[in-house]
Amino acid sequence: MSEPTLPNLPTDTYGVPAPSRRPRRLRTSATMRNFVAETQLDPAQFVLPVFIAEGIDAPREISAMPGVYQHTETSLLKAAEEAVKAGVGSIDVFGVPTPEHKDFAGTQAWAADGILNKGVAALRREFGDDLLVMSDTCLDEFTDHGHCGVLTTDHYGNTVVDNDATLPLYAAMAVSQARAGAHIVSPSGMMDGQIRVIRAALDAEGFQDVSILAYSAKYAGAFYGPFREAVGSTLQGDRKTYQQDPRNAREAIMEVQLDIDEGADMVMVKPALPYLDILSQVADYSTVPVAAYQVSGEYSMITAAAQNGWLDREKTIMDSLTSIRRAGADIILTYWATEAAQMLA
Ligand code: PBG
């Protein structure tokens, strides 16, 4: 093997002096890099989103989200146990009712024996305060039309989501979740005024200590695709009349301000990776803790690329979570919560 030869160029680089600042000094070893790292990930601030499904007797893998399951109560408790062991701070429960249990108003959403409340109750019973039980407070899994609110006909004969008629249903749902044992309710429906109504209802029923994580800046977009399969969504069309337009940044700040004014204890930006600019602005602006939701589409993209051998799965998971944290998230919702916590251990 012959020695590689450098091209014959002047070593003084045309008279330019040697670099006077050398940032590479702080990258010379892993110990040095750890010493100067600005960003740390802590599993205590991870949230594992989970699905509990009615009418199944074994966990069912979601085809567009390999490694994520619709759970039975038994398998849910097992997944939660693994999460707790790994140090994950919270679990966010979504309910998947049978088609017969969906209706116009989503009444199973606030039924004490509805699938979501059953899951919440089982988790709280099993883990007490060792795991923060968060519940999704939204009707879309429970309505037969798949929208996040009830429908009405407007003055021109169009079917539209009725913001104000939906609010009391969210209040009922939040109270039922608090009763079931939720530490945190998480309204994700993007109806105007939802936080104020939910806070008032929780307080009126004696649940002053149940906190609210508001999905404040939630964008309508393509990244929720796999989630629709995960919850057996019946939605036709889209959610563009209530979720935010991906072209807009300013309204994210207004939504956050409104939610804080209405009583949100924590706010969220969703999705995460495609919206790091929004996350960064919200983190600068917010006076309450900020969460970011690494959504189904983000999970599926990385999983698919890794399955093809195009990306290193574990490294890419860590890169993505680190970026979300660096952009300003305190709390991260991720389907990799348990696995990432194990990697950090
Ligand atoms: C709606 C809701 C959605 C998600 C969380 N809550 C779907 C939507 O808004 O269409 C998406 C989560 C994900 O994609 O991982 N209640």
UniProtKB/TrEMBL annotation:
Free-text function comment from the UniProt entry: Catalyzes an early step in the biosynthesis of tetrapyrroles. Binds two molecules of 5-aminolevulinate per subunit, each at a distinct site, and catalyzes their condensation to form porphobilinogen.
Gene3D superfamilies named among the record's database cross-references? Aldolase class I
Ligand binding (5-aminolevulinate 1): 228, 239
EC number(s) per entry: 4.2.1.24
Can you name this protein? Delta-aminolevulinic acid dehydratase
Which GO molecular function entries does the Swiss-Prot or TrEMBL record give? porphobilinogen synthase activity; zinc ion binding
Q: Which SUPFAM superfamilies does this entry report, sorted A to Z?
A: Aldolase (SSF51569)
| UniProt cross-references to Pfam families, sorted A to Z | ALAD
- Please describe the quaternary structure of this protein: Homooctamer.
Q: Mind telling me which NCBIfam families this protein's record contains?
A: PRK09283.1
| UniProt record similarity statement | Belongs to the ALAD family.
What organism does the UniProt record list as the source? Corynebacterium variabile
Tell me the keywords, alphabetical order.
Heme biosynthesis, Lyase, Magnesium, Metal-binding, Porphyrin biosynthesis
Q: Could you say which enzyme class this protein belongs to?
A: lyase
